[in-house]
Automatic annotation (TrEMBL):
Entry-linked SUPFAM superfamilies: NTF2-like (SSF54427), Sigma2 domain of RNA polymerase sigma factors (SSF88946), Sigma3 and sigma4 domains of RNA polymerase sigma factors (SSF88659)
Lineage of source species: Bacteria, Bacillati, Bacillota, Bacilli, Bacillales
Subunit relationships: Interacts transiently with the RNA polymerase catalytic core formed by RpoA, RpoB, RpoC and RpoZ (2 alpha, 1 beta, 1 beta' and 1 omega subunit) to form the RNA polymerase holoenzyme that can initiate transcription.
Stretches assigned to the RNA polymerase sigma-70 region domain: 23-88
Cross-referenced InterPro entries: ECF_Sigma-70_Domain (IPR052704), NTF2-like_dom_sf (IPR032710), RNA_pol_sigma-70_dom (IPR014284), RNA_pol_sigma70_r2 (IPR007627), RNA_pol_sigma70_r4_t2 (IPR013249), RNA_pol_sigma_r2 (IPR013325), RNA_pol_sigma_r3/r4-like (IPR013324), WH-like_DNA-bd_sf (IPR036388)
Record organism: Paenibacillus ottowii
Residue ranges annotated for the RNA polymerase sigma factor 70 region 4 type domain, each copy included: 123-171
Protein name (record): Sigma-70 family RNA polymerase sigma factor
């Protein structure tokens, strides 16, 4: 899908004969694509989509001149409201908060994976660095290729303000800790990625310190989300020696070695899932270093409330 197609379509007024069901079928996935990138949780994104179309039930469709833009605006407004309240809720979240992983089997838009860097797990973690309005501008500009005039119309801002918000977002995401969260480079293909995952899995299961050391980037980071539901590493491990010790310990993460380990597509990239009796109990999303030969970040999801959309 081209940038113009992804932005606010410059089209004539949609026929007044178009039904709500037809609009739902046409724009439901588009609304979800925005909401998931904004919120990082599948459940909340789906709720936003449903709320948007429930509102449309009570609105004369003939009043809507550009349905796609209208749906985008409704979706974004609800996401901003949720994010503003979620920031307070996450202050009391037990342990580290990570986005909800989305499996390959999910019902996604046809163009969902055209730009994998814009939906990768690392990208969602990256967006957590931004304030809600900054996130909105960045998502609309980078993921959906809206121009500043269109973004201003959707968010009720001036074009100048939107440009400033985008520039500020880019600065935040290109500096300090946020820079190390950048999504994997697109030149790293799935074949190379799988080979690295195979090496990692073999080293992890064998407690192989030497092999694991060869795989780690100079400054690896390990983050785990248990949400207070499952015992896990509560704080990010950010020292190479500490990450190595964690991954090769015979006491820490032992339960993962008791699972069936499988490769599966999560957020558009091949990642690891850990199964018990055929059910996904944990996922481990790896973000590779720019060279594609070392692992920069480990994102372990053990919170059962966030594993409902990864199916093998």
């Amino acid at each position: 899908m081209t940038g113009k197609e992804q932005g606010i379509e410059q089209e004539s007024v949609e026929s007044v004969d178009v039904s709500l069901e037809e609009l739902y079928q046409k724009y439901r996935k588009y609304s979800f694509a925005i909401a998931y990138r904004m919120l990082g949780t599948v459940t909340d994104a789906e709720d936003v989509v449903q709320d948007c179309f429930v509102e449309l039930e009570n609105k004369p469709l003939s009043d809507i001149q550009n349905p796609k833009a209208y749906v985008a605006k409704m979706t974004m407004n609800r996401c901003l409201n949720l994010l503003n309240s979620a920031r307070k809720q996450r202050e009391t979240y037990v342990g580290q908060w990570l986005p909800e992983p989305l499996g390959e089997s999910a019902d996604l838009p046809a163009d969902w994976l055209e730009r994998k860097d814009m939906i990768s797990y690392a990208f969602l973690v990256l967006l957590e660095q931004l304030k809600p309005i900054e996130r909105a501008v960045f998502v609309l500009r980078e993921a959906f290729q809206y121009d500043y005039k269109e973004i201003a119309e959707l968010l009720g801002k001036t074009e100048s303000n939107c440009r400033q918000l985008f520039s500020r977002s880019r600065r935040i995401l290109s500096s300090g800790e946020a820079a190390s969260e950048a999504p994997s480079r697109p030149h790293i293909n799935n074949s190379s990625r799988v080979k690295l995952l195979e090496r990692f899995t073999a080293a992890f299961l064998a407690y192989d310190v030497t092999a694991m050391l060869e795989l780690l980037a100079e400054q690896p980071v390990f983050v785990s989300d248990g949400g207070g539901k499952v015992h896990t590493v509560m704080r990010p491990m950010v020292v190479r020696k500490g990450v190595l010790a964690l991954l090769t310990s015979r006491r820490v993460l032992t339960v993962l070695r008791e699972r069936d380990v499988v490769y599966t597509v999560i957020n558009g990239e091949v990642q690891l899932a850990f199964l018990k009796d055929g059910e996904v109990k944990e996922t481990l999303c790896l973000r590779l270093a720019p060279d594609g030969e070392h692992i920069q970040h480990f994102y372990l999801m053990v919170n059962p409330d966030k594993l409902g959309y990864v199916h093998i």
